[in-house]
Amino acid sequence: MNKNPLFKIALTHLFSKKRQTIVAMLGVTFGIAIFIFQAGLMSGFQDFFIQETVNTTANIRIYNEAEKNRASILDKMNPDPHHWNAVQNQKPKDEKTKIKNGYQIISVLEKDPRVAGVSPFLGSQAIFKVGISQIAGRVSGVDIIKENILFDVAKNMRQGDITKLETIPNGIILGDGLADLLGAKLNDNISVVSPLGVNLDMKIVGINHSGLTDVDKSRAYINIRNAQKLLQVDGEYVTDINIKLKDFERSEELAKLYHTKFGFRTIDWKEANASVFSVFKIQNMVTYLIIVSILVVSGFGIFNILMMIIYEKMPDIAILKAIGYKDRDIKIIFLTESLVIGICGGLLGLLVGFLMQKIVGGIRMDIKGFVSMEYLHFNSTPAFYLFAFVFGLITTAVAGYLPARKAAKVDAIDIIRSK
Amino acid sequence: MSTTSIIKTKDLNKSFHDPVEFQALKNINVQINQGEFVSIVGSSGSGKSTLLYVLSTLDTDYTGHIYFDGDDLSLKTKNELAEIRNEKIGFVFQFHYLLPEFTVLENVCLPANKLAKFSEEEIKERAYKKLDLLGLRDQALKKANKLSGGQQQRVAIARALINDPKIIFGDEPTGNLDSKNSQNVFEIFKELKEQFNQSIVVVTHDMNFANKTDRIITLSDGEVV
User: Fold this and answer.
1) Given an 8 Å threshold on Cβ–Cβ distance, is A329 in contact with B114?
2) What CATH number has the domain bearing residue B157?
3) Which of B83, B85, B105 has the CB atom closest to A322's CB atom?
4) B193 part of contact set with chain A, CB < 8 Å
5) How far does B124 lie from chain A, in Å, by closest CA?
6) Phi and psi torsions of A139, nearest 5°
7) Is B110's Cβ below 8 Å from some Cβ in A?
8) How many residue pairs bridge chain A and chain B with CB atoms within 8 Å of each other?
9) In angstroms, what CA-CA distances link A377 with A68, A212, B49?
10) Does B57 fall in a domain?
11) Is A4 close to B113, i.e. CB distance below 8 A?
C-alpha cells in the first residue's frame, strides 16, 4: 500500500477519467512539441541566415560616401543666420568614393592582432553580355586570395577554381544564378561593360554559389586590377576595405575605433543587416505568441478535467476532510493531478518535438528564396527542451491551482448534509 | 466507570443566516462522559445533526464554548481542528463515504496514514485488527464498491476506529440500513463501549435504537428538552 495516500488518490482520480486525462495530456504534448519544433525551426533558420550573412558580409566594412546635402559655398561664406542664402539645383560634388591611401590602411590593419584578414574591394555596376542576352549586375573587384580568407569563396565554388582569377588575366567568377540567366557555362567568354562604357572581354573561370539568392543572381568576382580598368582609375583605387576579425562579436566596438582612427565611414555586419534582424525580432515574437497560446489552450483543458473530477469526487473530498485531512492536503491532491498531466504530457511532447525535427529535418526541401538551402536547419539546443518543459509545467501548475484551491475550500458539511 | 467528561458545552448557540435568520441551536449545555453511549434524537429540523457537526468540529460557525478533552475548541485554528478530528474523533455517517476505487484495507488505513504515528506495517496490522473486530478480515483486499451496504457501513466503522479515537460520532449511521444490519451496527457500538469503554454519540431518529443507549438527549427547536 502507498504510504502517501494523496498521490494514490490523485492517480485514482485520473484513472477514473482516462479519456479526458489523455486528451488533456495530449494538449500539453501538442503544445510542447510545437514549441520545440517551431522554436527550433525559427532559430535554426535564423542561425543559418546569420551564419550565411557573416560569411558574406564583412565583419567591418570601411568605405567612403559621397557627401550629400553639403553646405553651399555661399553658406560657408555667410554663416550669419540673419542672412538668407538661396542656391538652387546644387549637385553632389564630383568627388570620388575612393579610400585615400587604401593600401596603407590595409597594411596597418593587417598588423592589428585583432584582425584575421583584410581584403580590398572595388565594386561597380556592370552589364554582362553573352551574345544578345544582357543582364545588369555588379562586379566585385577583389584580391581573390584575401577575399577567400574573409568569405571562404572556395567553399562555395560549384565549378572552376578561385586561383584562376589570379592566374588568368581576364578571369571572371559568376554567381550560379547569374550564369543561369546568361546561359553561360564554365570557360565561356562574356563581355562586361561598365557604366563608363568600358568593355572587357572575360573568360568564366568559376561558378559560385553563396546561398543568398539575390547575390547569386547578380554578382561576379573579377580581379581588382580589371575592376580598376573598367572604372578607368589608378591602381591604388579601392572603394571598400573589408575586415574579418578574430572575434566577430567585437565588430561594433572595433568599427567605431577604426572610424576614429582612419576617418572613413565604418559599418559592422549587424548594422549592415539591421533590417533582417528586425524581421527576426517580429518573427520570434509571433512564434512565441503562437506557442504561448497553444499552451494556454492546453491549460484550459487541464482546468476543465480537474473541475469535472472535483464535482464528481465531492464525497471523497468531504470524507477526507472529516477524517482529518487538511485543506493543504486536498490542494496537493489536485495539484498533483495537474502536474502528472503536465509531466507526462510534457515528456511525451519533448519526444514528439524531437522526432518532428528529425523527420522534417531529413526531408530534402531545396528551398530557393531569401536564402537557398537543401534541408531545413533545426536548432536543437537543450535550452529549448528545458524551456519548453518548464514553461509547460508552469502552465499546468497555474491551470491546476484554481481547481485545487476550489477543492480545498469545499465545505464538508454541505456535502454530508446533502447526501 | 469514570465520569471524566469528553465533551462539555457552555451556552452553545448557532444561527443560520441564509436564506433567513434562523437560530438552530439555543443555549445548549450538555456533557458527554468518557465511555458513555449517548443518542441525540428529535424531529427533523430540531437541530440534532447541526449539534453533532458543531460538537465534532466540522462546523465552526457558532457562539459559546465547546470543551473537547479539556481544550476550548473555539480557540483552535482550522488546521488544529483537522488534527483533532484525525487523532481523536471517528466518524460514521449515514452514507459510508468510502473511496470506491480503494480497497477496504486502504480505506480503513486512510486516517492512520494521515496521522502517521505508526509505520506502514503497524498501520496495516492495526487495520486488520479492526476488520477482525467487525468480521471483515476476508474482505480486506476487495474494492470498497464491491461490498454490500451493511458491509460498507462496517468498513466505515473500522475506519472510524483505526486511530483509537476518544469519541465516535454517528450521524444516522443506520439510516440507510435494513433492520438486521441496523441491529448489527448497534451491537458493534455496544460492544465497543463495553469492551473498550469507547465514548459514542449517535444522532438517530430510530427510537428503537435510541432507547437501547445509555442516555438520550432530546432536541426540540434547537433546545434540549
Assistant:
1) yes
2) 3.40.50.300
3) B85
4) no
5) 9
6) -105, 140
7) yes
8) 80
9) 43, 15, 71
10) yes
11) yes
Q: Is residue B102 in a domain?
A: yes
Total structural domains in chain B?
1
The pTM of the full predicted model, rounded to 2 decimals, is 0.73
pLDDT digits (tens, 9 = 90+) for B82-137: 999 999 999 999 898 999 889 999 999 999 988 888 888 899 999 999 999 888 88
List A222's β-bridge partners, or say none. Answer: A141, A172
Domain that holds residue B175: 36-61+82-224
Residue from A6, A9, A309, A323 to probe the interface with B (highest B Cβ count within 10 Å): A323
B113 at A interface, C-beta within 8 A = yes
Task: ipTM value, please give it.
Answer: 0.91
Domain ranges in chain A are: 5-54+276-418, 60-68+95-268
DSSP string, chain B: ----EEEEEEEEEEEE-SSS-EEEEEEE--EEETT-EEEEE-STTSSHHHHHHHHTTS----EEEEEETTEEGGG--HHHHHHHHHHHEEEE-SS----TTSBHHHHHHHHHHHH--S-HHHHHHHHHHHHHHTT-GGGTTSBGGGS-HHHHHHHHHHHHHTT--SEEEEESTTTTS-HHHHHHHHHHHHHHHHHH--EEEEE-S-HHHHHTSSEEEEEETTEE-
